[in-house]
Predict the structure.
Amino acid sequence: MTSPTPPTIGALGRKAVISREDVIAAALSLLSSQRSVSSLSLREVARQAGIAPNSFYRQFRDMDELAVALIDLAGSSLRQIIGEARDQARKSADTKRSVLRSSVQAFMQQLKSGDKLLHILLREGSVGSEAFKQAVDRQLNYFEDELRLDLMRLSEAHNSDLYEPALAAKAITRMVFAMGATAVDLPEEKLAGLAEQLVVMVRMILVGSQHLQAEQSE
Amino acid sequence: MTSPTPPTIGALGRKAVISREDVIAAALSLLSSQRSVSSLSLREVARQAGIAPNSFYRQFRDMDELAVALIDLAGSSLRQIIGEARDQARKSADTKRSVLRSSVQAFMQQLKSGDKLLHILLREGSVGSEAFKQAVDRQLNYFEDELRLDLMRLSEAHNSDLYEPALAAKAITRMVFAMGATAVDLPEEKLAGLAEQLVVMVRMILVGSQHLQAEQSE
């Protein structure tokens, strides 16, 4: 997930033409662990992008639409990264544990790269407009759904059914995102330890779901 | 956790003397699902409390100290409520499932009551100053630690050891808080369903932790 580079402002001042990506890049460059999307003003983003506030409206209806675009972009990029990691793991060795480990590692790797889009998704999900929160929820649901399908494929291959796979996928997704939100500020040398913790925590959920299913069918 | 009532502003305008609780109540009354603590200004809080901005400093060094106070208050109140629910459940029937169920129900009950302190704790943990984030982390660690002790007591009573009880407690706490953050905006009739989901999700973690321990010692 490479962030678009912020538009450079020429010596002549404001730019006449600006793309959606330029506005998004300008917004991203203003965000930090101390500044949330909801604290950005349209005026600020326009200034950062080197455009007049009015030009902003050529790309986005309002700041809310920009915030939703950021979330959608963050979600789709992360899904792609994790999907690739899973495919890799699946090809190399078809064991549950390696798929789990490589998904968690891809997630932590992305966190470590300082990907601001991911940081927004992890940290700002629960404060903002209705539209913003719905966008975050939509992305979480996509993750949960893909994970559920993956878990069901894996458990079929291993002949060990899961109890309520949708809830197992939800538990994993929410927990990983919550842990990820705190990981954003950790120094790099602590991330490996956190990844190991996450792998154990996810295994607890998977093993629990398998055993609840086994009890159920006894 | 009853929120302190906002101070009433007399016909004569600004109040001369104001307590810490009054300032906290004024800040709480400004917060909503669309407005975060980090978006509040000192001026606004002072106005709401009916005091001059300068009087604010008699109670708090800055807005950051106020934000940390809100988190500490939220955490200690919630711990008390959940602690009481667990004690009740322990007295009435010493089964793991009832302790789990009543803890989750106490949590959802508190959410439903529209407790703004709890909403802050759930939603704003990951955006804000270093001091603010540390305060949230401290509260989460308290929860995890109490839960870990509780889990170990229960598993001893039931003769079923847990694998990495600290990680099980962490997984449960982070997941419940993440689910709680999305629950804040749910209509009341959906909360019961969510509580049932949470109970299943927490059971997955507990059962998983037990079975991983059993595998370990085989």
In short: Chain A has a mean pLDDT of 84. The two ends of chain A are 46 Å apart (CA to CA). Chain A touches chain B at residues 33-34, 36, 38-39, 122-130, 133, 137, 163-164, 167-168, 170-171, 174-175, 177-179, 181-182, 184-185, 197, 200-201, 203-209, 211-212 (CB under 8 Å).
